[in-house]
C-alpha cells in the first residue's frame, strides 16, 4: 500500500510530465516559418510579397537567371519562389532542390519527388519565400 507522501510524489511527477508533453505538442503545432532566414536581396530580384495593386509578373526567362545554389528561384504552380536561403535547411538535403533552380519544380514539390504530399508546414515555408506570380 502506498503512503500519502509516495502518492503525492507520483502525482507531482505525473503533473510535470503532462505539462512537458503538452507543451511539446503545442510547440510542434506552431508554424516555424519565422525561424527561416530571409532571402538576400539583389538588384534583379524583387523582394517581399508584391503589392495587391500592382503585382509584379515574373517571366520564365527571369526565373532561368536564378539557376544556381547561391541564387535559386523555382516555379511551383505558376508562382515564383526564391528558395536560396532554404537550400541548406531542406530535410532531404540540398540535392533535392539544387537541380530545380531556375526551373519548374511543380511536379517535384507537389508529389515530394514521387513520395507523396509535403506536410502543410512545407507549403507555409514555401509561401514565405514568395517572389510573385509567373507570367505566361
How would you describe this protein?
With 136 residues, the chain is α+β, with helices and mostly antiparallel strands. The chain has one domain: Cytochrome b5-like heme/steroid binding domain (Flavocytochrome B2, Chain A, domain 1, Roll). It has helices at 4-29, 60-64, 106-111, 120-127, and strands spanning 67-68, 71-76, 79-82, 103-104, 130-133. Strands 1, 2, 3, 4 and 5 form a five-stranded mixed beta sheet that branches. The chain is rod-shaped and about 75 Å long. The N and C termini lie far apart (77 Å).
What kind of sheet is the major sheet? 5 strands, mixed
Q: Would you state the CATH class?
A: Alpha Beta
In terms of per-residue confidence, which ranges show pLDDT below 50 for 5 or more consecutive residues? Answer: 33-51
The number of domains is 1
The structural class is: alpha+beta
Quaternary state reads single chain
Span of the ends, CA to CA: 77 Å
DSSP, total strands: 5
Can you tell me the CATH superfamily? Cytochrome b5-like heme/steroid binding domain
Global Rg: 22 Å
As a percent range, the share of strand residues is 5-15%
CATH architecture assignment name: Roll
Tell me the series of helices and strands, N- to C-terminal: HHEEEEHHE
For this structure, the CATH topology is Flavocytochrome B2, Chain A, domain 1
Mean pLDDT: 80
Number of helices: 4
Q: Helix proportion of residues, in percent?
A: 25-40%
Categorize the overall geometry.
Answer: rod-shaped
